[in-house]
Amino acid sequence: MKVLKAHKCFEGYTEFYEHESVITQTKMKFAIHRPSNEQNIRGGLIWLSGLTCTEENFITKAGSQKILNELGLVIICPDTSPRGLDLPNEHTSMHFGSGAGLYLDATTPGYRDHYRMYSYVNEEIYNLLNTKYDFKGNISIMGHSMGGHGALTIGLKNPNKYKSISAFAPIMNPMATGWTKLAFEGYLGQDHELWSKYDACELVLSGHSHPNPILVDQGDKDELYPNQLLTQNFQSAVKHSAQKLILNLRKEYDHSYYFVATFLESHLKFHLNYLMSK
Amino acid sequence: MKVLKAHKCFEGYTEFYEHESVITQTKMKFAIHRPSNEQNIRGGLIWLSGLTCTEENFITKAGSQKILNELGLVIICPDTSPRGLDLPNEHTSMHFGSGAGLYLDATTPGYRDHYRMYSYVNEEIYNLLNTKYDFKGNISIMGHSMGGHGALTIGLKNPNKYKSISAFAPIMNPMATGWTKLAFEGYLGQDHELWSKYDACELVLSGHSHPNPILVDQGDKDELYPNQLLTQNFQSAVKHSAQKLILNLRKEYDHSYYFVATFLESHLKFHLNYLMSK
Question: Contact B259/A7, CB-based, under 8 Å?
Fold first, then answer.
């Protein structure tokens, strides 16, 4: 594991790493922010970013460092897809391939060998964070947009691994919107049964749930809301399930990191509450 | 004046504009952040960015919005040079031309018609901010690296226009370092007398001063410190002058926006103090 950059930021350290991923069979990069007072560290968070993002977007734009230090939380932010490959159509669309891993394990030729972001996050990144700080599973998951979809689906499928789940403007029903359908087809072929394993609405409808409420913030001026994100479908799905949902609709906010930064502190405190309970 | 983008961020608005600059004779872009509670607005700030930056860097990376809203301050962040031109050598170096306007008024052929960032900031941006919010001159100036040089030189030459001056890791003696010498030559030719009008050390040594202390924060792990920034030359210059300097050397911090974000709140509160005094 190679340190690419390290910066003191408030009372902590923002660091960028590169490692050889066993799961994606590529080099992968991620960012970590950790409080300098290690005695004060109380839990870990995995942050999943949206389309076109890298390991840098959250850590440079969300203004998280001061709050993470104060709360005693470590955050790890993986990249959104493998890099350095040249698979068919990998670099032609912002909705598929490079920067658009969708946090699933692909089954189509070429992609199945590398685009395994579900396992990469849920195993490799999870284990790395858990081991490095001896968290003993005291880890929560969160994300934005495509990364919100990742947090919801990974969290719902592994309720015992994550203390809590939250998302900003998540894609909530990717099987049912045009562009994500195309990406699902590219990664998973025509097996719609398999698609449903990576769709938050379908997971809840098929009985998956997390014991703690899921926290979602959503701006009402978000250009993707509601038709691309299908927030209402998830609201409807949880009504018929054991899953509790706290959905905050935020007036005038859009889909950007300006919105994420605004409500980040409330999400970090939400997670801290569950990370501190036994 | 055209609004390019507008985002709600915390309790305020981050907006990007484009206008036809009379002074640079090009289109110019800038960012503004303003608190949504206009009754609470108490003053204006001009932020000048460093080499390679645009109007976006500060406003996306420094985490300023929450604090600006709380303190009731409006900030305006201009781009660092004219754009859309194709002057000789304009796009070949990160130290000269595009993204490297050095906040001076060029006198060399081609550049003298457009690279007039001193007047652009001190007149066009200043007047725009002053008029838009009826600040009646209640404006301070600050910046980072090359923008710190801009804040120091513009502020020292116009002590009556700016209530206070501050800088993060500023270039303090550009006449005396290699790369800035080359840029000065490109913009101003061989007239060293003219160079000295855009050098903070030379300005202080020739009797310029601001009635209030200048606040500077400097990281001791900054890769440009001290040889490229020549911080020690400014410390030495102010000793023989009327200018007061508060220089905070910050252990372990580097030249990045991670450093700027860390100490931004203290700079904003420093300016607020002078913006509120009559």
Answer: yes
